[in-house]
Amino acid sequence: MKKIVVFLFLAAIGMSGFAQQSDIPSVTIKTIKGQNFNTSDISNDGKPIILSFWALWCKPCQKELDAFNEHYETWQQETGVKIYAVSIDDSRSTSRVLPLVNGKGWEFEILMDVNGDFKRAMNVNMIPHTFLIDGNGKIVSQHTSYFDGAELELYEKVKKIAGIK
Amino acid sequence: MKQLYFLVFVLVLSSFNVFGQGISDQSRINGSFQIDGQFYRPDDAIGITDSVIAGRKVGLNGFGNITYTLGSFTAGLRYEAYLSPISGFDPAQEGNGFPFMYVAYNSELISVTAGNFYEQFGNGLILRSYEEWTLGYDNALSGIKVVYRPYKGISLKGIYGSQRYYWEKFERNSRGIVRGLDAEIDLNETVNSLSGSNLRVIVGASAVSKYQRDGDPLYHLPENVGAFAGRINLGAGKFNFMTEYAHKINDPSAMNNFIYKNGHAMLSSLSYSQKGLGVVLQLKRVDNMSFKSDRGVSGNVLDIGFVPPINRTHSYSLTARYPYATQPNGEMGFQLQVNYKIPKGSLLGGKYGTGIAVNFSQVNDIERNPANDTTPVYKSGTMGYKSDFIKVSDHVFFRDFNIELDKKLSNSWKAVFQYMNQYFDIETLQGKTNYEPIKAHIALADVTWRMSSMRSLRMELQGMWTQQDKGNWTAAMVEFAISPRWFFAIADQYNFGNEKISLGNEKIIKPNHYYTGSFGYTREATRLAFTFGRQAEGVICVGGVCRQVPASSGLSISLTTNF
Amino acid sequence: MRRFLQLSVVLFALSWISSCDKIEPPYIQSGGGTGDNLTRKVLLEDYTGQRCVNCPAAAKVAHDIQELYGPKVVLMGIHTGFFALPGPPVFMLDLRTEAGEAWDNHFGISTAGHPKGIINRTSKGGVYFLSPGEWSTATAAIIDDKADIKINLLTDYDENSRQLNISVSSTFLRTLGGAYTVQVCLVEDSLVGTQFNNDATIGPAVIENYVHRHVLRGTVNGIWGESLTDESGAVVGTIVDKTYEMNLNADWKAQHVSVVAWVQRASNLELLQVEEVHILP
Q1: How far is B511 from B471, CA to CA, in rounded Å?
Q2: Do C206 and B181 touch (CB under 8 A)?
Q3: Same structural domain, B141 and B269
Q4: Percent of residues, chain B, with pLDDT higher than 70
Q5: B205 strand-pairing partners
Q6: Which CATH class is domain A21-161?
Q7: In this complex, which chains have at least 3 CB pairs below 8 Å with chain A?
Q8: Strand, coil or helix: what is C99?
């Protein structure tokens, strides 16, 4: 079994393909309403996307999203950026995600990665882990951990790819 | 020598970074790795003598992932090394190799994975395979998985395989085989006439069965054990309701003392939320629901199902000091949480508004009565006991009341205040004997001063007051960060006021400081952090699984990156 | 037709996946082995301790296995590590032994945590110990194996002088290569002391008059035994005799003392045969 897998893996690397790839892998996770959602559908009409992994137990994650939320209206008006907040909470706390999101008044697209499939596909080892993705689905930059002020640096990059000085 | 292999592997991974971009614009290689290392030193004051270390001066846990994607095909490899495992991890982790390899094909209609994979059915009550690096937990399945989406809103899954058990290779009959089916229908998508409905309905059902040979001379054991679950998720306007019920047939095992009773679990939640307000009520009942692919083992291994605990997961060191762990043999609990944002400009809200979160949870044992007049409860080789579905025992495992305020004071000052009142049955939850249940008050303040747009200073002050176990604690921490790259922190936890002696345990714990100094550098997805100092004995829990961490002293280094 | 096929595949898969074995009482099996010396006897080493809450339940599993197989199973309770520490005034007994501690250390018992058992010192992937839930299956798997060695164990005890003479005569039932050692131990049964417990079917959380069964008290010929053959092994029919003389510890109750002797392979410590004899009839 092991040998076959290694062989197929190497064979796959040896081949070269032609399919157009975005940097966002295709993984089926859930929306906050419990519906299936394919992550390859993450898009924003060619405008920038911020993709942030978080969880209820992660304080810095919530601080980061709070900071995003404070500026979100302005950011959207200026650059059209869209924020996806992917909760990696498992079934112990999934039902508390929506009340928290509403309680905090977050306006982001919330996705639920209950078994960590998207997290693994995106190579997220620790949270908070935030990706900046351009209109073509390419990862422009990413950052793990959050301290106050990091949102300002991130927004400078958002402006750059949105073509705003 | 092993360290050398590991180094070579890391170098190869790094070179893929360059190589990956060279292959083709259409295919993609990416991956990540992480290395956690610890260097231990003796520290008599907290009980770490040379004989405790016993020559094991270094612990190293590391992993590396590579994923190759070509159109609809994906292949992945994961390398892990524990040389030797860092303190608190199971000694059976020792070793290195490729525990996770797969190839997968993905399309709109069908996905097929061969090799190792993770999967969860519904809430995971009867099937959840996952991995949690910080705990050293991994029950990946090895076999085949098929996900079939024949029609919009309908998804069918089938799995077949054996579970990972550290480095022990699967041999015929060495442990069980797991197979399962799951179906989920999103009625609003599937049924056209419901597509515009305000009522959202998603229903699902699953069946899982394990096979393990019966070679036991003492009992007639079931070789095939089945478990079934059904779930429904309803949403209407601001309300959301979810429930899942699972049933398992006779499954005598080391976990339930070889009793033949059926098992069941029920998890429900009802929530209401609108902008600025969220309320959620959760209920749970678990009865004889440990489900493992080897009936002989105990501990955090080879779990097929996952029964989530439903209490708040705390993020501060003292509020998280006594974390709850699910009791798969039986528990009944509930949780209520309210999140409210006091609006800006109101009397209590002030200029920026105030966030308030109140949470209460309690978990009791279930009531157990003898199955008949002649057999004591839990006698092995019998039905074990009878339990009424709605009856709760007086025995409280855990209670947690906490209230948290989240306040922005000005443009440069922010604060979080929290109070928690906890009851913790340490005998049941940590397997200790002759300890009184812990009754603790915990209070904390977490204040952030934003010195300039990119510089901030964060201060934490916590206190725990209790007469039981190790007594009172205080903790203080100061963290200076230059966002987004640098942080420096010093912290101290002080354990004092302890004269308690448990029966047969005459070790008097002297007041002790557990100080640490740490700093870290982060750039993009690369993070390097150093911590020097003492780690107090404790328990780390993520999800429903916990790991005991012994006291240690020394230097920890953690490096993580991806590409 | 296609739909019918799809349906039948689904139904077949369902029935296979949901297959269950509903077991009807009686759940407990009866009837064990024959006690024939020509099949191998099994030694179950139960690594235990008075402070270990899960150990009484494990001791009961060991006892159940012995009930089933009778004298074909030899039990030895080995008190080691932190859980066996004495602690007056609660824990008055110190049941630790030099050999027990050395074996615990060698097999990694305390690192993995009590209770653990070792069955005939067989190992899988370098791991010797098993959790109590695995003991019975592991015992059943080897108990009908043919014996390669026969041990004739005789004791002679004088109650006045407390002198104990032991004779161990090992016969090779077939030709074997490699080095073999013989290990002789003293075991005392029914020692009474305090025990922590969490199995309500056995007793309260603190059992004050717990009866410790089959307690290893010490070895007669060193921690790892003494040599029976060198690397060249022995041909079928070879008989090696060993004799030992000693005075029984004055604190031990002779009516509860037995001698346990076994022959093991020097390279991996696996037992080929074990015998137990009480020094008083």
Answers
A1: 10
A2: no
A3: yes
A4: 92
A5: B183, B230
A6: alpha beta
A7: B
A8: helix
Interface contact A5-B115, CB threshold 8 A = yes
- Higher pLDDT pick, B553 / B231: B231
Residue B267 and residue B237 share a domain? yes
Calculate helix-pair angle for C55-69, C132-142, nearest 10 degrees.
20
The Cα–Cα gap between B185 and B164 comes to 30
B323 and B257 within one domain: no
Domain limit, last residue, from B255, B274, B308: B308
Residue B193 placed within a domain: yes
Structure-block tokens of residue B249: 């047939």
- Per the CB < 8 A criterion, the answer to whether C121 and C128 are in contact is yes
CB within 8 Å: C53 and B504: no
Q: How confident is the model at residue B102 (pLDDT cuts 50, 70, 90)?
A: very high
CA terminus-to-terminus distance, chain B = 27
Confidence band of B432 (pLDDT split at 50, 70, 90) = confident
B464 occurs within a structural domain: yes
B310 and B361 Cβ atoms separated by less than 8 Å:
yes
Task: Sketch the domain layout of chain A as residue ranges.
Answer: 21-161
Under 8 Å between Cβ of B473 and B464: yes
Interval C91-119 mean pLDDT: 91
Q: How far is A37 from chain B (nearest CA, A)?
A: 10
What average pLDDT does this structure show over A23-46?
89
Q: At which residue do the structure tokens 């653990």 appear?
A: C116
Q: What percent of chain B has pLDDT over 90?
A: 57
Compute how many other C-beta atoms are within 10 angstroms of the C-beta atom of residue B33. Answer: 23
Only one residue has tokens 């797969």, namely B102
Averaged pLDDT for residues B175-199:
91
C4 or C187, higher pLDDT:
C187
Q: How many domains does chain B have?
A: 2
Put simply, the answer to whether B219 touches C69 (Cβ < 8 Å) is no
Q: How far is C195 from chain B (nearest CA, A)?
A: 10
Residues of chain B with Cβ-Cβ distance to A154 below 8 Å are 484
Handedness of CA B549, B550, B551, B555 (dihedral sign): negative
Asked if B469 and B482 sit in the same domain, the reply is yes
Tens digit of each residue's pLDDT (9 = 90 or more) over B359-382? 999 999 999 999 888 888 888 889
Tell me if C14 and B505 make a contact (CB, 8 A cut-off). no
pLDDT digits (tens, 9 = 90+) for B461-496: 999 999 888 889 999 999 999 988 999 999 999 988
Whether chain C has a CB inside 8 Å of the CB on B207: the answer is yes
Q: Which of B53, B148, B503 has the highest number of chain C CBs within 10 A, making it the mutation to test binding with C?
A: B503
CA dihedral B39, B44, B50, B53 (to 10 degrees): -40
- Please tell me which residue of chain C has the smallest CA distance to B435: C205
**Which structural domains are found in chain C, ordered by start?**
35-145+183-220+251-275 (3.40.30.10)
Shared domain for B357 and B278, answered yes or no, is no
Predicted ipTM of the assembly: 0.87
Residue A13 has pLDDT above 50, yes or no: no
pLDDT 10s digits, B254-271? 999 899 999 999 999 999
Q: Which domain holds residue B409?
A: 310-523
Q: Determine, for residues B222 and C22 on separate chains, whether the beta-carbon distance falls below 8 Å.
A: yes
Chain B residues whose CB is inside 8 A of the A1 CB are 115, 142
- Report how far Cα A14 is from the mean position of its chain's Cα atoms: 30
Decide if B402 is inside a domain.
yes
Assign C101 to helix, strand or coil.
helix
Q: Which of B308, B335, B356 is the last residue of a domain?
A: B308
- Give me the numbers of helices (H) and strands (E) for chain B, helices first please: 4, 30
Q: Which of the two residues, B284 and C198, has the higher pLDDT score?
A: B284
Cβ of C200 within 8 Å of Cβ of B378? The answer is yes
Pairing of strands A36-38, A28-31: antiparallel
Judged against a pLDDT cut of 60, whether residue A21 lies above it is answered with no
Are residues B335 and B189 part of one domain?
A: no
Give B364's DSSP letter. E
